[in-house]
Predict the structure.
Amino acid sequence: MTSFSSLGLAEPIVRALTEERHVTPTPIQAQAIPEILAGRDLIGIAQTGTGKTAAFALPILDRLARHPRRPEPKSVRALVLSPTRELSGQIVDNFLKFGRHAHVTVSLAIGGVPMGRQIRALARGVDVLVATPGRLLDLAENNAIRLDQVEVFVLDEADQMLDMGFVHAIRAIVRRLPHKRHSLFFSATMPGAIAELAGSMLHEPVRVAVTPVAKTADRVDQRVVLVDKANKGPLLAEVLSKEQIDRALVFTRTKHGADKVVRVLAKAGIPADAIHGNKSQNQRDRVLAAFREGKIRTLIATDIAARGIDVTGVSHVINFDLPNVPESYVHRIGRTARAGREGIAISFCDQEERAFLRAIERLIKLQIPSEDRRGAGMAFDVPDGAPILLDTQEDSREDTRGGRRQGRPGGQRASAPRSDGGRGSEQRRGPQRDGAARQERDGGRQEGRGPAGAGRAQSPRAEARPGRGDEARAARPQAARAEGRGDPRPARSEEARGAGRPEGRANRGERAERGARATGGELGGIGFMKAVPTRQDGRKETQGVGAKRPGR
């Protein structure tokens, strides 16, 4: 069996490994370390929790220990790029732990903390710099660091770098590196975009893959619960109360969603805290430390922590929201079942996330066992391969509101069967409007929306209003002729309605009519008002045209 001492690492590195009781390398370490020691560029593919950090940290430390030299001011010898602050901190810890006898200097450059201390640390030059892309570019643009002396360049979690939109920052950093360098790519998955990026940055790389692409941890018991969106909070509280949980990591899709889950659990008497990009670095460090020490057993996180949390004893990963990027699912559940342990991954899937679930199952080539905890009356199951249309029109929005009423705790009223085409207007308006009033209202509305030239029903209020009846309108041309204002014009014409307004100011109907002519009756799918003739006397009124704006 291969041991670290047989890999040819320098004596100070082997001594540190022995002190840490690391004797046998993991598969990715056993295959990658000899290739890196030989000076070859490398692409390493392995799921999270398999020892990728040590796979590149140990040979880099070996190189620095065998060829010691003082780095030039503001320069670095080895540069490691990482997508998140938490992961960057853990990489630094590994370099310090395994390089304790190699006398190397290690520095960290991440966002969320003042830049001054980092500038001072780089002023004399460092052997190893671990950085996030954004902060590294800030330092480079402020002349606080030079990248032309980099000997080894490592891009860790390359696939998440692309998911987080760092590709342009990475290319800007690579342009500052020397052409002759040793480059290493490590990733949990290998989508086509990563292969293309690696091909442009590496020279004849060797590929080391210890697991099939996108293969999830074998020791993770995966489950899916089909649930109404409104019931996810109560279901999470139920799972956390009933499961045998050591530590649970709960993932949400948004920062606001993470904070909301913390509040929901607090009402249920379950202590939890959140970690995401809106938290300061000190807050994130404090929460993560409490989670590691077991002071809090439930941590709510966004994908920023999917690869930045290396905590032993995470027994459960719960996807409160399914990720819209399938590869993120692999990284999330990789937070459990680490170092040979077993773990449980539970995913909540609502109506709108069914397409995400299918994409995940296609990626991992596995149909995840599911449990149906949805309310009655939801048409959820559709054949595999059928497109999922997330309808934002009025009917689906009203159905969503109805679902929320059913999902409220405390036995609040549920929506009754509707006879109004799904709008539920009678329920929302209350019982005070009897059937006759509704019939009169609906009949007037339908008559008012009839085709051009159709009559428009007058409400009792309009008939009782003085000076607004047909006789008053018919008298206006005669009054105009008597006052010598020229030929009579049709009452309330476009010109008459514009009279008395500042020059150049068009009324609402004119602006809408011009907009309708300019756009051919459409305006980017958003509804607008168009003037159309609806009265026999030449008057025009505005009528809604086009798609309705979601949420109205």
